[in-house]
Amino acid sequence: MSKGNLRIVGIGPGDAAWMTPEASAIVAQASDLVGYAPYLARLPERAAQTRHASDNREEISRAREALALAARDKQVAIVSGGDPGIFAMAAAVFEAIETGEPHWRALDIAVAPGISAMQAAAARLGAPLGHDFCVISLSDNLKPWPLVEQRLIAAAEADFVIALYNPASKARPERIHDAFALLRARKGGATPVIFAHAVGRAEEKIEVTSLDAADPSRANMSTLVIIGSSATRVIARVGAPPFVYTPRSASGLPSTWP
Amino acid sequence: MSKGNLRIVGIGPGDAAWMTPEASAIVAQASDLVGYAPYLARLPERAAQTRHASDNREEISRAREALALAARDKQVAIVSGGDPGIFAMAAAVFEAIETGEPHWRALDIAVAPGISAMQAAAARLGAPLGHDFCVISLSDNLKPWPLVEQRLIAAAEADFVIALYNPASKARPERIHDAFALLRARKGGATPVIFAHAVGRAEEKIEVTSLDAADPSRANMSTLVIIGSSATRVIARVGAPPFVYTPRSASGLPSTWP
Question: Could you count the other beta carbons within 10 Å of the beta carbon of residue B109?
Answer without folding.
Answer: 23
